[in-house]
# Entry
Amino acid sequence: MSLERAEKYLEERGFADRIILFDVSSATVALAAQALGCEECRIAKTLSFDQDGKTVLVVAAGDARIDNHKYKETFHVKARMLPASEAEERTGHAVGGVCPFGVKDGVSIFLDVSLKRFDTVYPAAGTSSSAVRLSPADLEGLLPEASWIDVCKS
# Structure
């Protein structure tokens, strides 16, 4: 179901041809980079957070780490990762395939500036064995409701 959600979202916007499916797991940054044959930093990981019952996704470079101070300054709440057991129910995608495409209504999406240093990044496509080849500008265009933020360590 997750792949179908992401695939439909990308297809409606003319990007379905950018989806890459693997015969191996891409559930972690390291596994995704290995499957793609690229640097880990180019994996656009989607981190899911709970903000007092609201679901927030932050898409960041694979080598980026959340800076708790910056997160709190930006969102005015402490960073609290969504429990893995709730990810699919709240986002529409299971852990290992969480991505910003075709998410459930009410999910807020943010793009971290750590992605802007690359010409190509690879977010998941809804499963733990998929990716999408995109530029940061493509991501921004595909996610018009998303805002750029700076919540990762420099």
Remarks:
- Residues 2-149 form a domain with the YbaK protein fold (CATH 3.90.960.10).
- The chain has a mean pLDDT of 96.
- The longest strand covers residues 43-51.
- DSSP finds five helices and seven strands in the chain.
